[in-house]
Amino acid sequence: MKLYQLHSKQALPIGKKQAWEFLSDPANLKVITPEHMGFNILSGADREMFPGQIIQYKVSPFPGYTTKWVTEITHVDQGNYFVDEQRFGPYALWHHKHFINEIDEGVIMEDIIDYKIPFGILGQLAHPIIVKKQLMEIFKFREDKLKELFGTVDSIPNELQLKSF
Length: 165
Fold this sequence. Notes:
Elements lengths: L3 E9 L3 H8 L4 H4 L8 E4 L10 E9 L2 E13 L3 E8 L4 E11 L2 E11 L3 H31 L8 E6 L1
Antiparallel strand pairs: 1-7, 1-8, 2-3, 3-4, 4-5, 5-6, 6-7
Protein backbone atom coordinates (compact mmCIF):
# COMPACT_ATOMS: atom_id res chain seq x y z
CA MET A 1 0.00 0.00 0.00
CA LYS A 2 1.37 3.41 -1.01
CA LEU A 3 2.04 6.19 1.45
CA TYR A 4 1.28 9.73 0.33
CA GLN A 5 2.43 13.05 1.74
CA LEU A 6 0.89 16.46 1.28
CA HIS A 7 3.17 19.37 2.22
CA SER A 8 1.88 22.93 2.41
CA LYS A 9 3.58 26.18 3.44
CA GLN A 10 1.97 29.57 3.63
CA ALA A 11 3.36 32.85 4.95
CA LEU A 12 0.91 35.02 6.87
CA PRO A 13 1.56 38.63 7.97
CA ILE A 14 0.37 38.03 11.55
CA GLY A 15 2.01 37.35 14.88
CA LYS A 16 2.72 33.86 16.17
CA LYS A 17 0.18 34.21 19.00
CA GLN A 18 -2.63 35.20 16.61
CA ALA A 19 -1.71 32.39 14.22
CA TRP A 20 -1.70 29.84 17.06
CA GLU A 21 -5.02 31.03 18.45
CA PHE A 22 -6.67 30.69 15.05
CA LEU A 23 -5.04 27.46 13.83
CA SER A 24 -5.28 25.51 17.10
CA ASP A 25 -9.00 26.22 17.52
CA PRO A 26 -10.88 23.27 15.95
CA ALA A 27 -13.92 25.50 15.34
CA ASN A 28 -11.90 27.37 12.71
CA LEU A 29 -11.60 24.21 10.60
CA LYS A 30 -15.13 24.92 9.40
CA VAL A 31 -14.02 28.41 8.32
CA ILE A 32 -11.15 27.07 6.18
CA THR A 33 -12.97 24.03 4.72
CA PRO A 34 -15.06 24.35 1.54
CA GLU A 35 -18.75 24.65 2.39
CA HIS A 36 -19.76 21.87 -0.04
CA MET A 37 -17.99 19.35 2.25
CA GLY A 38 -20.63 19.82 4.95
CA PHE A 39 -17.99 19.92 7.69
CA ASN A 40 -19.44 19.99 11.22
CA ILE A 41 -17.86 19.39 14.60
CA LEU A 42 -19.92 16.95 16.64
CA SER A 43 -17.94 16.96 19.90
CA GLY A 44 -14.60 17.52 21.58
CA ALA A 45 -13.80 21.07 20.53
CA ASP A 46 -15.14 22.80 23.63
CA ARG A 47 -11.80 23.44 25.35
CA GLU A 48 -8.26 24.52 24.61
CA MET A 49 -6.26 21.93 22.68
CA PHE A 50 -4.45 19.24 24.71
CA PRO A 51 -2.74 15.89 24.01
CA GLY A 52 -5.30 13.09 24.12
CA GLN A 53 -8.18 15.33 23.00
CA ILE A 54 -10.68 13.47 20.81
CA ILE A 55 -12.61 15.55 18.28
CA GLN A 56 -15.49 14.12 16.26
CA TYR A 57 -16.55 15.60 12.94
CA LYS A 58 -19.07 14.87 10.24
CA VAL A 59 -17.92 15.48 6.69
CA SER A 60 -19.14 14.79 3.14
CA PRO A 61 -16.00 14.24 1.09
CA PHE A 62 -18.08 13.29 -1.96
CA PRO A 63 -21.66 14.15 -2.96
CA GLY A 64 -24.04 11.64 -1.43
CA TYR A 65 -21.48 10.26 1.04
CA THR A 66 -21.25 11.50 4.63
CA THR A 67 -18.94 10.00 7.21
CA LYS A 68 -17.79 10.53 10.75
CA TRP A 69 -14.17 11.49 11.25
CA VAL A 70 -12.60 11.06 14.67
CA THR A 71 -9.20 12.60 15.35
CA GLU A 72 -6.96 12.62 18.39
CA ILE A 73 -4.62 15.48 19.20
CA THR A 74 -1.48 13.48 20.00
CA HIS A 75 1.14 16.22 20.48
CA VAL A 76 0.96 19.88 21.44
CA ASP A 77 3.84 22.32 21.84
CA GLN A 78 1.92 25.46 22.78
CA GLY A 79 2.40 28.16 20.15
CA ASN A 80 4.67 26.06 17.94
CA TYR A 81 3.04 22.87 16.66
CA PHE A 82 0.41 20.22 17.16
CA VAL A 83 -0.33 16.83 15.62
CA ASP A 84 -3.69 15.25 14.91
CA GLU A 85 -4.18 11.61 13.95
CA GLN A 86 -7.29 9.98 12.55
CA ARG A 87 -8.73 7.31 14.83
CA PHE A 88 -11.76 6.63 12.63
CA GLY A 89 -12.61 7.99 9.22
CA PRO A 90 -12.14 7.81 5.48
CA TYR A 91 -8.36 7.14 5.42
CA ALA A 92 -6.38 4.03 6.25
CA LEU A 93 -3.84 6.41 7.86
CA TRP A 94 -3.96 10.16 8.55
CA HIS A 95 -1.13 11.84 10.48
CA HIS A 96 -1.24 15.66 10.26
CA LYS A 97 1.51 17.89 11.66
CA HIS A 98 0.82 21.65 11.98
CA PHE A 99 3.80 23.97 12.50
CA ILE A 100 3.93 27.72 13.10
CA ASN A 101 7.34 29.33 12.62
CA GLU A 102 8.08 33.00 13.15
CA ILE A 103 9.68 35.02 10.34
CA ASP A 104 10.43 38.76 10.02
CA GLU A 105 7.23 39.36 8.03
CA GLY A 106 4.95 37.28 10.32
CA VAL A 107 4.72 33.49 10.39
CA ILE A 108 5.04 30.49 8.13
CA MET A 109 2.24 28.01 8.62
CA GLU A 110 3.35 24.54 7.56
CA ASP A 111 1.24 21.39 7.23
CA ILE A 112 2.67 17.93 6.64
CA ILE A 113 0.12 15.17 6.16
CA ASP A 114 1.12 11.54 5.77
CA TYR A 115 -1.78 9.37 4.67
CA LYS A 116 -2.84 6.09 3.12
CA ILE A 117 -5.92 5.33 1.09
CA PRO A 118 -8.11 2.32 1.95
CA PHE A 119 -9.27 -0.32 -0.55
CA GLY A 120 -5.84 -1.48 -1.76
CA ILE A 121 -5.26 -1.20 -5.49
CA LEU A 122 -8.71 0.34 -6.05
CA GLY A 123 -7.82 3.12 -3.62
CA GLN A 124 -4.49 3.67 -5.36
CA LEU A 125 -6.27 3.94 -8.71
CA ALA A 126 -8.79 6.42 -7.26
CA HIS A 127 -6.10 8.54 -5.61
CA PRO A 128 -4.98 10.66 -8.61
CA ILE A 129 -8.52 11.01 -9.95
CA ILE A 130 -10.45 11.76 -6.75
CA VAL A 131 -8.45 12.01 -3.53
CA LYS A 132 -5.40 13.96 -4.71
CA LYS A 133 -7.60 16.37 -6.65
CA GLN A 134 -9.84 16.94 -3.66
CA LEU A 135 -6.99 17.45 -1.16
CA MET A 136 -5.32 19.95 -3.48
CA GLU A 137 -8.64 21.82 -3.84
CA ILE A 138 -9.16 21.85 -0.05
CA PHE A 139 -5.69 23.23 0.61
CA LYS A 140 -6.03 25.80 -2.19
CA PHE A 141 -9.33 26.88 -0.59
CA ARG A 142 -7.56 27.16 2.78
CA GLU A 143 -4.77 29.21 1.26
CA ASP A 144 -7.28 31.60 -0.32
CA LYS A 145 -9.37 31.85 2.85
CA LEU A 146 -6.33 32.57 5.03
CA LYS A 147 -5.23 35.27 2.53
CA GLU A 148 -8.70 36.78 2.76
CA LEU A 149 -8.66 36.72 6.58
CA PHE A 150 -5.07 37.76 7.27
CA GLY A 151 -3.44 39.02 4.07
CA THR A 152 -0.31 37.72 2.41
CA VAL A 153 3.47 38.01 2.52
CA ASP A 154 4.30 38.69 -1.12
CA SER A 155 8.05 38.09 -0.73
CA ILE A 156 7.54 34.41 0.21
CA PRO A 157 5.75 32.14 -2.28
CA ASN A 158 3.24 29.62 -0.94
CA GLU A 159 4.02 25.95 -1.53
CA LEU A 160 1.69 23.01 -2.04
CA GLN A 161 2.95 19.62 -3.16
CA LEU A 162 1.89 16.02 -2.95
CA LYS A 163 4.29 13.06 -3.12
CA SER A 164 3.91 9.32 -2.98
CA PHE A 165 6.32 6.76 -1.60
